[in-house]
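Sample pair:
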Amino acid sequence: MEHIAAFMLLIACGDDLQVCTEQPAPALAYETVQQCELELSPAISAMASNSKRTFGTCVEVDPALFYEDAEIVWDVTAAGGLEVDIELINPEIASDLVARSEAPIQASRFN
């Protein structure tokens, strides 16, 4: 069985960052954060041709979450940053660190 260590989150927004949507990533999950990061820049570049503002990050995940119900919560900030959290759906499960993402990579396209 594969060990899931990271996933990629890609977000496309309009110029004003008011309307943003998740975009499909090249893979569902990665065994290492480094594998995810190798594919991150090309994925953002491919997405940038169709969106005004694009964001992406690799999120490191505790492999124990594979067996838990959790949801990915993200927000594009007014300053153009991408914040990502993983929230456990079952509140009885306590975990200090379930996910961590490095600084997002941003690409912008201006006409």
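The mean pLDDT is 80.
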